[in-house]
Design a protein that fits this description.
Elements (H helix, E strand, L loop, with lengths): L1 H19 L2 E5 L7 H15 L3 E6 L4 H8 L3 E4 L12 H15 L3 E4 L2 H14 L3 E5 L7 H7 L4 E4 L2 H9 L7 E3 L17 H6 L6 E6 L8 H13 L12 E6 L7 H15 L6 E5 L4 H5 L4 E4 L8 H8 L4 E4 L4 H4 L8 E3 L4 H12 L2 H18 L2 H17 L1
Helix pairs in contact: 1-16, 2-16, 4-5, 5-6, 9-14, 12-15
Length: 401
């Protein structure tokens, strides 16, 4: 009996060794650096330390490819869109992915988004490749899309809200797990404001900065912030409180979609910035200094209409910045009521958002209390080390199978 136990223990050790040297293929759709890509990048060091050797199939040029090469991660060119920006046919992409898998012979596939999960599920199943797909969106899916996702060995949802939404649509409950994103608590930490943004944009030193960070898109709700800011500007000193010209609004992010509605959305935001809010509504575009920028804000506002688990909310919490966010998707999982760590408002409600902005802009002690509670919440629930360890555990479990 003891001899059998030793043999089983030796076999288990060899199995773990084989997992530790597993070749990991990550699959990404876009060349840009949005929340899903940032979350993936933040785990690579820990994944490597656990013994996995990652390579990433992604567009060969762009911010994501640059960030991967900076980290000495191999980029395998995989273009999901043609030169005109149109998505290539699904069948063609699947054939190309199958060829890549046969050539590289990875031990494990991780699709970093729901879209890439749908693309790769049937391919991984047909080739007998253990695979995971990350669910970072709350969107309506067809029955065929659900079937494609269910082909994976395991599915990872960034929040319970994301998991529940897709389970109700038919996703396989037994293989769908919740794994919240984590945030680097050293990189994103409380900082005393230096005033560098005021200097960069020529703003009065006393100006209070209210920022929102995210892709310019209808689901992110920057238009609601524009309406709230306009309300505050018109009703300064009224029932919405003091909203003087010393308040400036910073919109950080770019538009990536080329759809007509997305172009109109950005145009409307720029019109607001050039109209009644001229000089106080600033579109900053993409910024690489988000960790430092957060420390300059009086408030972080996240007016999203849909949000599985807002990465910028995790970063703001870790940075000790008071936040106002819409109560959608997984946001309540970041800021549960008992934590009293953020102000939540209904989505699409510009007057409610305006009132919350006015109240917190005028109440420095409450902002400090929210900021401290948010940092404690980030430390207790969203440490990057914990999230990475959880991801590695899922990798090991899938690779063993």
């Amino acid at each position: 009996m003891e001899s059998r136990r030793r043999r089983l223990s030796t076999h288990h050790a060899r199995l773990l060794d084989s997992v530790a040297m597993a070749q990991l293929l990550l699959l990404c759709e876009y060349a840009s650096l949005n929340g899903g890509e940032q979350s993936m990048l933040s785990t690579l060091e820990g994944v490597r330390a656990a013994g996995f050797a990652p390579a990433v199939a992604a567009p060969a040029a762009g911010p994501l490819a640059d960030a991967l090469r900076d980290r000495r991660v191999e980029v395998l060119p995989f273009e999901t869109h043609d030169r005109s920006g149109r998505r290539r046919p699904q069948d063609a992409l699947r054939r190309e992915l199958a060829r890549l898998i046969r050539q590289r012979r990875p031990d494990l596939l991780h699709a970093n988004s729901l879209s890439m999960g749908r693309l790769s599920g049937p391919v991984a199943a047909e080739l007998g490749l253990p695979s995971l797909a990350h669910l970072r969106d709350i969107i309506r899916l067809s029955r065929r899309a659900i079937g494609d996702l269910n082909c994976h060995t395991r599915l990872l949802a960034v929040s319970a809200a994301t998991r529940d939404y897709h389970l109700n649509a038919g996703l396989a409950a037994a293989k769908t797990h919740v794994l919240p994103n984590g945030v680097d608590l050293q990189r994103f930490r409380p900082r005393a404001p230096s005033g560098y943004l005021h200097q960069e944009f020529g703003l009065p030193s006393a100006a209070r900065l209210i920022g929102t960070i995210g892709q310019l898109a209808l689901r992110k709700g920057q238009d609601v912030l524009a309406k709230a800011a306009s309300l505050l500007g018109r009703q300064s000193g009224g029932e919405l409180g003091d909203a003087s010209d010393e308040v400036h609004y910073l919109l950080v992010g770019e538009r990536y979609s080329d759809k007509d509605e997305s172009r109109r959305f950005e145009a409307d935001l720029r019109a607001a910035a050039a109209g009644a809010m001229a000089g106080r509504f600033h579109l900053l575009g993409y910024r690489r200094d988000v960790a430092e920028l957060l420390g300059e804000l009086t408030l972080l506002v996240h007016p999203a209409r849909q949000e599985p688990l807002g990465r910028v909310l995790l970063e703001a919490a870790a940075s000790g910045v008071a936040a106002i966010a819409t109560d959608v998707g997984g946001t309540r999982e970041i800021f549960p009521p008992e934590s009293q760590s953020a102000r939540l408002v209904p989505p699409g409600d510009a007057p409610a958002l305006a009132r919350a902005i006015a109240e917190l802009t005028a109440d420095a002690p409450e902002r400090r209390r929210l900021a401290a509670a948010a940092r404690r919440r980030a430390e207790s629930a969203f440490d990057l080390r914990t999230a990475t360890a959880g991801l590695v555990t899922h990798y090991q479990a899938v690779a063993r199978r």
